[in-house]
């Protein structure tokens, strides 16, 4: 991180990105009954990702690593702001408590659809790593612990993790407003669903929703932040005790359907 | 991680956020300063709590908790703190984070190419499944408890 702080070049580039992105500002487009909201953070992410050696050649490999080392700390100010959003809205959040807690089980919908799809696409044990959760940091750590990150399960979870890092934020922003426009789901419920354990995905989703529903923006942001905290608390245990056993079972079941035989028994890390 | 290094990064990001808050939301730097200093204080308090309290509770958990307590209606001075922090648009805090994240993404693009299209299809399914699954449950519970 020390290298990152001293790397003046990346700070200057980030400052330029911030000014340019904020100058472009928030733009919403009416599409049918809904609204597509583009936020400055999306421009910053996209322009930033084009700075690499492949495109604009403004940053080198080391600059990219330095910038990455700072992301964790840069999130703190935003989290502090979220705390100050939750505080004044705490009475409303407690009232929504049951919905907030029960929606966490929606994460299991992922594997019910994801495992059969992955097996159908021809993935083997990669399917379990890829589809058991949204693959944020705690899930990657868990798969690494149980199966090892160099095996097929590890490749699966790393693949989805990287997809999440590269286009997850943009995807969540667009999905939130599309769902709000076309599905009969209230913005409050969508804000609660935004907390999947990734601060940037939650922010993209809640940010787009609050641009679309400015009257209840504060409450939406508070619900998203509360839901994200909850996912951070229970996500790991939910994966360990529910999602992984269910994934293993569903994998065996769908494997038999596709290939006509049972899959080979898997070997846990350290059992050999 | 040293506290001094953390504070250095926080100060850099605070300056960028103040500039973004001015350009994008027309909140003057001077009028946003008390709110930003309050947010910085929350971060430092969170980092200190992590180091002092046993149990290895993450920084962000402390930061959110303390921020939540001091702005809870009825806490002494909560109205003033909320008014100050209201000048700092939460969206202006997100832009520098994603600019740093964007710069670092370049190194992940090659790895993404290697993992292949199947994983990308599964990832899209995973994102949609989690989101819509959770939203439907939340919607059901909210309407069952008459909160819509």
TrEMBL record, chain A:
Protein's UniProt keywords contain Nucleotidyltransferase: no
Any Pfam family hit: DUF3100
Domain of life where this protein originates: Bacteria
InterPro entries: DUF3100
Keywords: Membrane, Transmembrane, Transmembrane helix
TM stretches of this protein: 12-29, 35-52, 64-85, 105-123, 159-183
UniProt name for this protein: DUF3100 domain-containing protein
Species of provenance: Dethiosulfovibrio peptidovorans DSM 11002
TrEMBL record, chain B:
TM region(s), chain numbering: 7-26, 32-49, 56-75, 81-103, 115-138
Keywords: Membrane, Transmembrane, Transmembrane helix
Source species, domain of life: Bacteria
UniProt name for this protein: DUF340 domain-containing protein
Organism: Dethiosulfovibrio peptidovorans DSM 11002
């Amino acid at each position: 991180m020390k290298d990152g702080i001293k790397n003046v070049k990346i700070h200057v580039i980030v400052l330029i990105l911030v000014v340019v992105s904020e100058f472009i500002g928030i733009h919403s487009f009416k599409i049918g009954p809904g609204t597509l909201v583009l936020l400055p953070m999306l421009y910053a992410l996209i322009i930033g990702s084009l700075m690499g050696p492949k495109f604009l050649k403004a940053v080198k490999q080391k600059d990219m690593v330095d910038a990455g080392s700072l992301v964790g700390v840069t999130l703190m100010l935003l989290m502090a702001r979220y705390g100050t959003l939750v505080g004044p809205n705490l009475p409303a959040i407690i009232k929504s408590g049951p919905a907030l807690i029960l929606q966490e089980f929606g994460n299991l919908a992922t594997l019910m659809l994801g495992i059969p799809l992955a097996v159908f696409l021809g993935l083997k044990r990669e399917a379990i790593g890829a589809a058991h959760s949204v693959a944020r940091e705690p899930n990657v750590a868990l798969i690494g612990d149980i199966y090892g990150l160099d095996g097929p399960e590890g490749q699966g979870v790393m693949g989805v993790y990287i997809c999440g890092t590269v286009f997850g934020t943009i995807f969540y922003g667009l999905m939130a407003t599309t769902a709000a426009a076309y599905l009969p789901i209230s913005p409050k419920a969508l804000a609660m669903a935004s907390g999947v354990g990734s601060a940037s995905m939650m922010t993209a989703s809640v940010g787009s929703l609050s641009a679309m529903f400015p009257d209840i923006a504060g409450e939406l942001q508070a619900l998203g932040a509360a839901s994200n905290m909850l996912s951070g608390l229970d996500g790991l245990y939910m994966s360990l005790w529910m999602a992984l056993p269910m994934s293993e079972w569903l994998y065996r079941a769908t494997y038999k359907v596709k290939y006509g035989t049972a899959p080979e028994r898997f070997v846990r890390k350290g059992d050999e | 991680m040293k506290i001094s290094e953390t504070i250095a990064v926080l100060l850099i990001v605070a300056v960028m956020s103040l500039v973004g808050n001015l350009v994008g939301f027309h909140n003057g730097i001077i009028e946003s300063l008390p709110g930003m200093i309050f947010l910085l204080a929350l971060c430092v308090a969170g980092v200190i709590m992590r180091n002092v309290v046993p149990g290895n509770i993450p920084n962000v958990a402390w930061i959110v908790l303390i921020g939540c307590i001091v702005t809870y209606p009825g806490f002494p001075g909560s109205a003033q703190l909320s008014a100050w922090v209201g000048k700092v648009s939460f969206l202006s805090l997100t832009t520098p984070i994603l600019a740093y994240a964007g710069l670092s993404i370049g190194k992940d693009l090659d790895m993404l190419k290697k993992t292949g299209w199947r994983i990308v299809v599964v990832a899209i399914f995973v994102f949609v499944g989690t989101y819509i699954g959770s939203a439907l449950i939340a919607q059901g519970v909210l309407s069952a408890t008459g909160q819509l």
